[in-house]
C-alpha cells in the first residue's frame, strides 16, 4: 500500500490515481472534474466505436458466408512409423467416403528431452525426436448461394 501524495489516503501499490481526491501519479497533479468527465466521455466513445467496428466485421462475415459456402474442418495426426503409408491411406479413404477433402498435409518434428536419474550425483540426458504427419480435412456444410 502507498499513501496518496495529495490527501494521504491509503491506495494500492499499482493504482495510477487516488480514488478519493483523483491525484494522478502519471501527471503528478489532481485531475479536475472536467478532465474526469472528458476522460469518461472519450472512453465511452471509444467503446461505442469498437462495438460498431465489431458489428461491421460480423456483418461482413455474414455477407461473406452468404456468398461462399460454409466449411468445417477436422485434423488427423499420424505418428511416423513403419506402416505410416498404410495408415494415411486408410484415413484418406475413410474421410473421402464421408465427403471430406484433404486441405493441408505437413510433417511436424517433435523433440523431447528424457532425463534418467542415476544413483550417483549426476543424471543422464537423452534427446529424442519423432515425426508427426498432420492432415487437415475440410468439407462444405452450407452450399454457396448465387
Low-confidence stretches: none
Shape, per Cα inertia axes: flat
- Given helix and strand content, the structural type is alpha+beta
- CATH architecture title of the largest domain: 2-Layer Sandwich
Q: Can you list the strand order of the major beta sheet? A: 5-7-6
Strand content: 35-45%
The biggest sheet, with number of strands, parallel, antiparallel or mixed sense and barrel status, is:
3 strands, antiparallel
List keywords for this structure.
Translation Initiation Factor IF3, alpha+beta, flat, 2 helices, single chain, two-stranded antiparallel ribbon, 146 residues, 3-stranded antiparallel sheet
Describe this structure in words.
With 146 residues, the chain is of the alpha+beta class. The protein has 2 domains: 2-66, no CATH class; 69-142, Translation Initiation Factor IF3, CATH 3.30.110. The protein has helices spanning 33-67, 84-97; strands at residues 2-3, 10-11, 23-24, 29-30, 70-79, 101-117, 123-142. The protein has a 3-stranded antiparallel sheet with strand order 5-7-6, with helices on one face. A two-stranded antiparallel ribbon has the order 1-2. The model has no long low-confidence stretch (mean pLDDT 85).
